[in-house]
Write a structure and sequence with these properties.
Elements lengths: L3 H8 L3 H8 L9 H13 L5 H4 L5 E7 L3 H6 L2 H13 L4 E7 L15 E5 L4 H10 L3 E4 L9 E5 L1 H14 L5 E6 L12 H14 L7 E5 L2 H13 L6 E4 L2 H13 L9 E6 L12 E5 L1 H16 L7 E4 L1 E4 L10
Parallel strand pairs: 1-2, 1-3, 3-4, 4-5, 5-11, 6-7, 6-8, 8-9, 9-10
Antiparallel strand pairs: 10-12
Amino acid sequence: MATIKEIAKLAECSIGTVSRVLNFDDSLRVTDEKKQMILKIAEDLQYKTVQQRNKKDILKVAVVSMYTKVEEIEDPFYLSIRLGVEKRVQTEKIDLIILNDVDGSYDYSKISGVEGIIAIGHFTKTEIKAFSDITNKIVFVNSEPDNKKYDSVLFDGENAVEEVMNYLYLNDHRNIGYIGVKSIRESKMVDLAEKRYDLVKEKMQRLGIYNENNIFRGGKTFSDGYKLMKEIINEDKLPSAFFIGNDSMCIGALKALFEAGIKVPKHISLIGYNDISSAEFTSPSLTTVKVYTELMGEKALELLIDTLRGREIPFRIITPTRLIVRDSVTKHVE
């Protein structure tokens, strides 16, 4: 049986750090990437905590992620949701199986026989049919394919856009750009940015400041944000502020601006999305929308347990968002 010492050696960190990550210690200051590494090593070595080893009458539950393991590291939004599920599992009699996308498909044999599924992200009709062939006890997180049949956990995207645009407007920004997250995988025919773009467009139109030339589609990673911002700088299309679809891209954009000698927030203001762990430690620290991703994961597991116990009416939970004001936005001066 694997030990914490073995995991610590492979992860190149202390035994204490490994122990605190595996026990989901909220006070631990460690990057999402390091958490993912420790959890992956523990998973590969089939490590079980004392609580897990002592559980009787265990439920078998799967977490299926839209992302590959690499994508979870590049954009930790879905990783954080999964960590919320795993954190909540520690208090339940549950054997959790993690299934990630691999080259656009899933090995469904790995989750054959599970009693419930938490599906994180957006899935095709074919994929959803495959899930339902295994079990009809499914909770979708960050998507809602059928609210009459399945539970779902979403976040309040409307409030997020409203807060961001109002904050920029109150700081006298009228020439505002938006960089949306581009479609993650063409095979899924899903554009995760589309709804948020519609909300941004509608809000800008109500404020009388919408400009199609200020709208860009980016990607999802640090390098995507970096490359796109360099292109925008070269085309001399800079507005006074940018709202960017996730923090990873926003941090990449921040690097491109720094290299071009364009100071944030003196010359341009930036707002990100998700409030990943590194957002607080950029220079300047990043103003961003906090999405309570771990809470979404915890609530998803609670819903699944509830429906496994007999609830038949599907529930829909919407978690809040909050604008975290830091240093990357300032009042615009003509």
